[in-house]
């Protein structure tokens, strides 16, 4: 599988990333999913301390035991949680980040994290303090690089201007084209990579699009009504009834040079197999990319501009 550089970090991530949030809590099944992903050339695993209140990190850490050097491991911090009560609150303080990484390292059974992200962020955060924490961890070798998981252009611009982030994780798919407005080009110009999460739009852009639209999009999705979602799905089908929707949707977000990897989830090996079944060695042709853009509409950010 092709690999792309993550910003200026020297880290190379596979163009497809296994998002671990959907792995569940059955260790055997989760390990099978991770092992299959690694066997297919995926080297990048994405987790977070908040997923299942730390259990996800524990499962990932146990599953990659003995394979750590083969893997680019990403986790996130910023949500101060209580595993016993299930409560959490936003905490981007230096104290919490420095403590949070220690706990994540223990759960992941590793002594370093390749890419560490702030799991959110607002313009009112103590941004300089947050950056100071990540820079400290980087200097100490606890993390190799850092970034932010955010869809807020105003917050992203602050980090680009004030820090040495190497990547930004944001939602991006054919239905959610907000990053195309300005932010993808902006990050590319600053040599900062994008990790595109949600490329299949909750399955509504997958091989099971209509079924998922009826489940996940019955009340609409980002300004699209259920009827509009179904209409686009039908147009895609008419355009090419043999199209592998998963491949098409993943390659759509990978088309922009800022995007280093498309981050998708899987709750079974069969789902994983179906998602990555396709030719990912070549990029989407320009004419197909343009045709897809004409099927949807370029929605824009209305808040956090």
What key attributes describe this structure?
12 strands; alpha/beta; two-stranded antiparallel sheet; 305 residues; eight-stranded parallel barrel
Principal-axes geometry comes out as globular
Task: Trace the largest sheet across and list its strands.
Answer: 3-4-5-8-9-10-11-12
Low-confidence stretches at least 5 residues in length (pLDDT < 50)?
none
Distance between the termini: 35 Å
Helix content: 25-40%
Question: Could you give a short account of the major beta sheet?
Answer: 8 strands, parallel, barrel
Write the layout of secondary structure elements.
Layout: E1 3-5, E2 12-14, E3 16-19, H1 27-39, E4 44-46, H2 55-63, E5 72-77, E6 79-82, E7 87-90, H3 94-108, E8 113-118, H4 127-139, E9 143-149, H5 153-162, E10 167-171, H6 183-189, E11 193-197, H7 209-216, H8 226-239, H9 245-254, E12 259-265, H10 269-276, H11 286-295
Parallel strand pairs: 3-4, 3-12, 4-5, 5-8, 8-9, 9-10, 10-11, 11-12
Antiparallel strand pairs: 1-2, 6-7
């Amino acid at each position: 599988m092709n690999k792309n550089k993550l910003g200026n970090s020297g880290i190379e991530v596979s163009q497809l990333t296994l998002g671990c949030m959907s792995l569940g809590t059955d260790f055997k099944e989760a390990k099978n999913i991770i092992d299959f992903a690694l066997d297919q050339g995926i080297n990048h695993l994405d987790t977070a301390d908040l997923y299942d209140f730390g259990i996800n990190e524990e499962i990932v850490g146990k599953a990659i035991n003995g394979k750590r050097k083969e893997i680019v491991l990403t986790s996130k911090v910023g949500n101060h949680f209580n595993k016993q009560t299930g409560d959490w609150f936003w905490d981007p303080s230096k104290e919490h980040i420095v403590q949070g990484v220690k706990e994540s390292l223990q759960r992941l059974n590793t002594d370093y994290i390749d890419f560490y992200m702030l799991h959110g962020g607002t313009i009112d955060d103590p941004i300089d303090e947050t950056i100071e924490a990540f820079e400290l961890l980087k200097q100490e070798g606890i993390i190799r690089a850092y970034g932010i998981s955010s869809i807020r252009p105003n917050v992203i611009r602050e980090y680009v201007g004030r820090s040495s982030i190497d990547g930004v994780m944001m939602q991006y798919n054919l239905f959610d084209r907000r990053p195309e407005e300005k932010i993808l080009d902006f990050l590319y110009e600053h040599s900062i990579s994008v990790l595109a999460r949600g490329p299949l739009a909750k399955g509504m852009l997958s091989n099971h699009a209509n079924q998922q639209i009826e489940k996940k999009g019955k009340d609409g999705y980002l300004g699209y009504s259920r009827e509009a979602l179904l209409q686009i799905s039908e147009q895609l089908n008419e355009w090419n009834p043999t199209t592998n929707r998963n491949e098409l949707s993943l390659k759509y977000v990978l088309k922009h040079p800022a995007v280093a990897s498309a981050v998708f989830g899987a709750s079974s090996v069969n789902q994983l197999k179906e998602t990555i079944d396709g030719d990912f060695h070549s990029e989407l042709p320009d004419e197909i990319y343009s045709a897809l853009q004409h099927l949807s509409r370029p929605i824009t950010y209305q808040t956090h501009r």
